[in-house]
Amino acid sequence: MSSTPTPVSPSSMEPVGVAVLGCGRVSDAHLDAIRARPEFGRLEAVIDTDRGRAADAASRHGAPRVLTSLEAALEIEEIEAIVVCLPNHLHGDPTVAALEAGRHVLVEKPMADSAEEATRMASAAEQHGRILAIGQSRRHTTAIRYVADNLASFGTLRALQESFCIRWDGAQAPWWAERTREQGLVLSLIAPHSLDFVQMIMGADDPLRVHAESVRHRTDWQADDEAMLLLRYPENRLVSVHLSYNQRPHFDRKVLLFDGCVVQIDDDFVVWVDGELVIEPQAGELAEMARPALQFVWQFEEFSKAVRGLESRSVLHPEGVRLMRTVDAAKRAAVTGETQTLG
């Protein structure tokens, strides 16, 4: 394998050989995405320490290989990239191992369980000249791309309000219930979605200060299931974020307050500018408000283009590290009750 991706044109792009590591709840969305875009990628293997679970995933998604270790996958030349779908705290070691073996990596969000671990992963990507992308699938809807592409036309941003509230009837994986308050639940699992959007809007600026309050309403887990964040950014821009695992019906709204207009995004698929509908769900997108597979398809396209050296919207490791610093600050603030100053 070459040390850096080889630039190619989209028409001549060779599909990327991919293995998916971890066959838990989020893996099906990634496997569906790879299968949906054969011009961008080909599924070479599924990997899980539970061979039965791996075999089931391989059968459903047409993978030619069932493996029980990452080491076995890294011996196969046809596997150029690894999609890491493991629990948050297990992202670091396999990502670094894959990068050191010359593979590219798409790691599920959050990038890691701490900024320190994210920095270690990023260093491996830079040292070995590989793509390390983070699975921020919500960046890839038509609505979010529209806002990103037209941001300069809206004026000067004053404030951003975001609410991302859903309901889970119990832990969706055993390790959810084991998370401590210091590790966080909503502050680790869905805050990275919301704060990634904030980071996209704020560009190169990181927050100056982060304050957070978190509570637990239910006994399904040990950690937080509701949180409020307040962030201050350079140029006096303010951000508030509300996160919940207790809300039925689902409520997902982002409001950007500019000096000359108001932009509202609902469910990541609808955009209103001063009350006028400018982006609505395209054909096939309505169901995606409840089932996010389509976002993963678009995300996989961007990852494959990045691997091949093409222009891409992938969220790469420098942004991932920045985001983890903000997430870490929010978790510290929630536990200590003290506003965190990032500088």
Concise overview:
About 35% of the residues lie in helices and about 25% in strands. It is an alpha/beta fold. α1 (about 25-35) links the parallel β1 and β2 (about 40-45).
Distance between the termini: 41 Å
Low-confidence stretches: 1-8
Number of strands: 16
Order of helices and strands: EHEHEHEHEHEHEHHHEEEEEEEHEHE
What integer value in Å does the Rg equal? 20 Å
If you consult CATH, what is the topology of the largest domain? Dihydrodipicolinate Reductase, domain 2
The biggest beta sheet reads:
9 strands, mixed
Percent strand equals: 25-35%
**CATH arch. level architecture of the largest domain:** 2-Layer Sandwich
Number of helices: 11
CATH class term of the largest domain:
Alpha Beta
Write a structural description:
With 343 residues, this protein is α/β, with parallel strands linked by helices. The protein folds into two domains: 10-138, Rossmann fold, CATH 3.40.50.720; 140-274 and 316-341, Dihydrodipicolinate Reductase, domain 2, CATH 3.30.360. The chain has eleven helices and 16 strands. It has helices at residues 27-36, 51-61, 70-73, 92-100, 115-128, 142-149, 174-178, 186-189, 191-202, 293-307, 317-336, and strands at residues 16-21, 41-47, 66-67, 81-84, 104-108, 132-135, 157-167, 209-215, 226-233, 237-244, 246-258, 262-266, 270-273, 276-279, 315-316, 340-341. The protein has a nine-stranded mixed beta sheet. It has a seven-stranded mixed beta sheet with strand order 3-2-1-4-5-6-15, with helices on both faces. Helix 1 (27-36) crosses helix 10 (293-307) and helix 5 (115-128) runs antiparallel to helix 11 (317-336). It is globular.
